[in-house]
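Q: Predict the assembly, please.
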Amino acid sequence: MDILPQLIVSGLAAGSLYALMALGLVLIFRTTDIVNFAHGDMAMFSTFVAYVLITAYGAPFWAALLAAVAVGFLLGVFMDQVVLRPARRASVISLLIATLGVALILESVAGWLWGWEPKPFPRAVRGAPLILGDVVISRHSLLALGVAVSCAAGLFALLKLTRLGTAMRAVAQNRLAAQLLGVPVERISMLSWGIGAALGAIAGLFIAPFVFLEPAGFVKVMLKAFAAAVLGGFTSLPGAVVGGLLLGVFDNLVGGYLTTQLKETLVFALIIVVLAIRPQGLLGEPLHRRVA
Amino acid sequence: MDRRRWLIWLLLLGLLLLAAPLARGYTLYVWALAGVYVIAAIGLNLLTGYAGQISLGHAGLLAIGAYGSALLVTKLGWPLALSIPAAGLLTGLVGLVLLIPALRLTAIYFAIATLGFGAAVAQLLPNWSGLTGGHQGLRVPKMALAAGSDAERYALMALATMLMIALAYNLVRSHLGRAWLAMRDHEPAAQALGIYPPELKAYAFVASAFFTGIAGGLYAHLVGYISPGDFHLGISITLFAMIAVGGFATVPGAVLGAVFLSLLPHWLSATRELSQILYGVALVAVVVFLPYGIWGQLLVGYYRLRFSEERWAERGRALLARLQRALRPMATRLALAASSNPVSLAVEPQTRNTKRSQRGGGGPLLEVEDVTVRFGGLKALDSVSFTVQEGEIVGLIGPNGAGKTTLFNVISRFYSPESGRIVLDGEDLLKLKPHQLIERGVVRTFQNIGLFPYMSVLDNLLVGEHRRFRSGPVSVALGLPRAKREERLFRAQAEQRLAEFGLLMLKDAYVWALPYGTKKLIELLRALLAEPRLLLLDEPVAGMSQEERERMGQLIRRARDEWGVTVLLVEHDMSFVMGLCDRVVALSFGRVIAEGRPEEVAVHPHVVEAYLGEEASLGSRA
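A: Predicted assembly structure:
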């Protein structure tokens, strides 16, 4: 049996979730110029809330998902308004430090509350996997793919079709000019953080059944999301999607044909190669260097 | 001075050793471990604090040092005294791998790439189990003098840490340390002063990896056991937190941060959760309350006290006046120096400006021929041609967006034109890189001031001398007499020049604390001290008061009259340009629209039109 179609399909399913995480990262980066190094841990924390609701209170998956989205949104808003607002004018490096700090806090609070050992996370849907010719795909993966695609589509629609989206794009392009034209930039950056973190929470819930849920475990997921975003260009939302999908497939092909043990090492090598050829990533805007 | 520093070092080491018998074995172990963190944090600080390259993957380098030394000892039977330095060198070479992405990526992308590097190493370790022992890890002989007690290991670590701190001090106080900071804060200005970024970044990566590798080696032989779990992402972030909390780009900051953050959990006998939360809170608090870190904040406070703004504003005015009085003897002296034997130095500097032709001799110094620059679809410069004669002061004018600064950036080689030629005294400038121009006598200033704010005035001047330093990183780090002598000589020379300008009292002032006008002046001074043939001034009097403008004008004219400097300047202030320049070139939308004597160009219909718009010019013609 040819395993190639199988590898590609499961790669796409995993990749769509990386893409979802990456979309949140890129959205936040574009509107606020901040790389959120707490993205993975924010998603982890939201997922833990869902976990508690499901296992301790017997909540259905969908209710837990909604709660996780709400927690994610609030974490994003908290990050923007409480942690970053006082440091709005700080340098890139300071803001990076602040997000790292929040990552550490979230991780250890989660470890404190829920313990460090990995926990199995229930799938969104049960039932026999679907078989299409050579390809087997679990219902959960299929649903994840669907959710990721609809979230991405929803985000694009929001950005292109609504007033809010127009304002977000304006802030992304030129924060000062947008502010002068009356766009409430504070609220926009708050919403971008909220939406970005909520997207991460959704991705987290669907990823957790594959990787187990543990406080320190989402760093690897975040690295994948970073890789996806960098691959796609970090400034480009479609780039994040393309980067995520490519990464998922690449990951699976490496795992299927070469080695499962060095996947991360090879992913890193891939990024270096791509960046060496195109420093701005696949779909990113070319970087202009301004002198003077 | 030097002897006093030795004394302080010995005193500190003595204190550290004397304190040992008072402590229990475990406390000694914890302090010895803090030494590992100190060395690694200093290593990270060389790269991140000084050279401005954020690394979140230093745990990978730490691992390479640890496993490197462990394997040299266990597989090849090397003694520790050899294996640890060898592991440092090996790690230093691996550090060069990170240089490749660093040369192409902006800060934040590079940080992400290093994150990937750390993850890659963390994954290689357990999977290369034939060599690394996999997840079980490796047992390694501990370091020992005789009996191998905790106290011995503590003493050895204290010694090693002091040694590494001394190496770091030597590095950051050298021309290399200055060049790193310069590059970090204003790369184009650093390049224009003769610094070649890839070279300096390579030094920073190797030095940083070397320090971290040494720390890794020491760690292995301090603990006696290493496994992949010791080098996870959290360690990279902890190291980063240490320098952020202590203060970027300071050695004491890295030491403080490392000692503080590595001992804090033990003092509080904290659990993993609590210590991580503490680190996290510390990081956020640092950003909000102490953006310069603990040590940085102390320094800032000290400088605020010592050089308060009002005092400097007052002094700045007095300085300008003094400067003018002082300029004449200085200029004559330097002109003499340039025409006869350069400056007598024990270390032979490169003979400068041997091609310097007779001043005032005329003949074209700079020829710009048919230069076209395109940004996307926009022609920023459209076959621009003009020449600058030796000894002239030429003004470049034009409305905003005319391409003046673009032209400067082409001449100083930051941009490459699509077509055209730029010739300096017969030499094709387009073949050169930005850092090579200063050797040819082309020196520029920047519109928004190309000084390095977090360096003293004296250090700023010394960056201008970077190209004349001959000692390499190794002799600098080891503090070889040759390197020290060189540093002393250039320092004395720069101090002397400051004194000649009457600016000696400013030598230790950080540039960020100085008033605007004084900064502009110091930038010009730095350019003049490089003994330029062609001085490119980008808006030298923008934002200055009328009084300051007049003085600046007199200074520029004197530089030309008494020192033979040819000047090409961009300026918006028309009365300044008209009063100073021998000739004016007017640009508009990337084309030369007029050229000639200032009073001719000022009334040229194209120029009037460019500045005031079509109607106005029609009106003036009518």
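The beta strands of chain A are 130-132, 135-137. Chain A touches chain B through 52 residues (CB under 8 Å).
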